[in-house]
User: What shape does this take?
Amino acid sequence: MWTIIPALILAGVAVPTTAAIFELTECGADAIEVEVIGHQWWFEYHYPDADVYTANVMVIPTDQEVCAKLTSDDVIHNFWVPQLNGKRYLIPGQTTELRLQADEPGEYWGHCAEFCGLSHSLMRARVQALEPAEYQAWLEGQQAPVTLPAEGTPEYDGYQVFLNKGCIQCHTVRFDQEEQSNIVPPEAFNGPELTHFASRNVFVGATLPEEGESRAEALKRWLADPPTIKPGSYMPNLALTEQEIDDLIAWLESNG
Amino acid sequence: MADLAHDALLDPGEHLADEHESTGIDNRKLGMWLFLGSEFLFFGALISNYLLYSDGGVPGPV
Amino acid sequence: MTATVERPQTTIFRRPSAKTGIWSWVTTVDHKRIGIMYGYAAFLFFILGGIEALLLRIQLAQANSEFLTAGAYNALFTMHGTTMIFLFVMPASAAFMNYLLPLMIGARDVAFPRLNALSWWIFLFGGIFLYSTFIFGTSVPPVGAGDVVGNLAPGGGPGSFNWLASSPDGGWFCYQPNCGPLYSPGTAMDYWALGVQLLGLASLVSSVNFLVTILNMRAKGMRLLRMPVFVWMSTVVAFLLLFSLPIIAVALFMVTFDRQFGSLFFAPVGGGDPILWQHLFWLFGHPEVYILILPAMGMVSEILPVFSRKPLFGYSAVVFAGAAIAFLGFGVWAHHMFASGITPVAQAAFGLATMTVAIPTGIKIFNWIGTMWMGRIRLTTPMLFAIGFIAMFTIGGLSGVTHAVVPSDWQQTDTYYIVAHFHYVLFGGAVFGLFGGLYYWFPKLTGKVMNERLGKLQFWLMFIGFNLTFAPMHWLGLQGMVRRTWKYSPEMGLEPWNLAVTVGAFIIALSVAVFMVNWYTSRRRGADSGLDPWDARTIEWMVPNPPPEYNFAEPPVVTRLDHFWHLKYDQDDEGRAVRKPLADQVLAQIEHDQLNPKQPIHLPNPSYFPMFMALGLPVVFYGIIYHESLWGKAMILVGAIISLAAVIGWAMEPLEEPHHEPEEDHEVMEGASADG
Assistant: This one.
């Protein structure tokens, strides 16, 4: 009897369990697709229909099934936004799928949940759910290139820092001018796309700015010496002067 | 005493035959068969890995 | 007696004969001495693993702490897991099995004494090899595909103790490709892979040894279903080891080849599959967790009946449940991979299979409770640990059942909820069981009893500390704290609970210190135990404490389960045990007879060669790590020669040295005790 009762309980649990597995796994036909690419140590998001690349903050519309297609550029990561669904691996060379759906607008926190190296604990995620109309507006905003800053402004100086100090080895920005359109780094390496950096409320693996810190303060700390904030960071210390950092921040923050 | 030792040196098998074997199989034979059982798993793992992946198959999971 | 026979007297191959001193320990093949050495070494590694844990907890007590560098943190959790599993729980179980199995089945030693010594030496040298990474290992962050320099701040970034970061830091599970050559360059994970390979070899060898011993060397009348449950669990564990270790050996070979020799088993760029590693690892890894728990379950099954004054409830069911758990355990490995993108069908199958394991586990728990039910309970320290085991293991088992519900596991996996689960079953389960066993069999080992007051103090400190440490982790995991995380966001509000966890960890440390004091003082000044301090049931208590080198002067003829108990007790009409009037005389006679054997007793001779064979292996492995240099290649050669020479010596040495005179036999009989 003591054997049969646990067996019956488990059998009872097994039925809804199995049903839930199938229900929660398969992406429906109406789902919109977002690619999530894992890197050491940040999440990249690609919206294939709009050809938009962004990082750290994933924006989705509410009341809409989102099919996240997950893969990785280097090691195995794990995308987990607890309030939206369970987690799923991001595996290099393979694609996995995860269904997400936000019923309410708001911000949902997430984290990489597979040990992926030195800064695994600093690889976080944010999902912003917007009303469908706002989402459309956001997407269109992301698709638009940014304008080159006017000469003589701090933003222009910051843009020069971006061009000359090595940033373009890894980061892309899309411009609306012919001569400086899409700066694309070499195949081997990429960091987050920075075109609309200022539209993201968090950066550096969604860990900055910390509580009680302004964006500028956080960026100052980061740009001064990335490896001390993110151990093992692929973004090296570029030995920027304080002036260069301020100008760079001015330019980045002007790209909303 | 000396006889026992003498026999043991010249014919170790006889000494071991004194050992009580509950299964009736000699200790060394039983030990070898058990080890062979584990070798089954060892080569089985190697061979099945080869068979699964030799056609270039990195499967695409859901 | 006259020696009229000429024998070859080679000085190289004659077997050593020291009975005392360091050399006697180095050459011993006596299962009791080997068990003691295993025990002390395992305890040392327990302390090391515990220190690693304390350092981790100091780092986690605050959200953005910079007590440790990220690299040091990663190395510490890798080594904590590796140490506790491979260098503490498994060898501690081996210590008990080594010491007790022959005594429990009425044998003089194990089937292959020199092989037994080999296992011990391979384990010891493997552990030293693994820990030598703190000195020799190197661990550097991944080299970028471009030539990015300076991607590690000087000193390893914020934090201290960066020198620890040179040891293995890819996790005890070494998931690919993070733990492969591209993303964990340096030698640290090579030390890990080869070290674990060595340790696996030690366990494989001893599993063959124990199986042959148990199957073949039982005393007359000791049928399989009359064996103590601990012996049964050891049998099951030996089968688990036999069939799971080869799989991890294959996996470790593959990862060593990937790292050292350029193969692409797990590298996507070459068509390899990182998930293959996970399958292979967990095909071993899941049976491994049953290897970790079953010996402790066996010990608890011995302790509970003695201190409830009742036989084990449902002996056959407990035995078969143990075997069923092991068998089913081979079919559930992918429940560690529910989030890895395996198909929903696979997930459902493994989820259901995992649920079925709960059934035999439940049988055991109900039977343990049934043993205590209506028994006359004596709350001695070993009994407290056994009861604690049941309670804590049940809690851990219940959280395990929640993992079997796959969609729920998608939230739980890789969080502190899982950390809570496995520590409840491994610490609250296996470790509590091991401590119970230590207190219970301490008299067997030493002839004295441990101090009961210190023992109870240790139990309660450990119980409180343990629960304070691991209970909050269920909550932390469900609140979103991921595993293997050096820092966590202060905005998540998890700091107070993490601080509580750290305090609990230090309470555990305090309890271990109490234990060490108790062990040391009881060995020196503990009260004498006599033959049967606990009024026990099984035949290992039919030899004096500590046992003479030959264990039994004459192996008992076993008539039924709990043979020893039935020599002392009858059953009255209501089924209660009534002590036989002559019981005390019977005990005294047993003790006298065991100390005065009537016939000369052959014991296996000591030998040098197991140690030398074990010595060559790490030398070869050091050579493999540094194989690109000349002296690395030399080490491979030298190590191979040492081991090979030892094998030849082993094969050629005489099976026994002649006994020269009756006086020498008399020395053997006088009971050169195995106690160190």
User: Anything to note?
Assistant: Chain C has a mean pLDDT of 91.
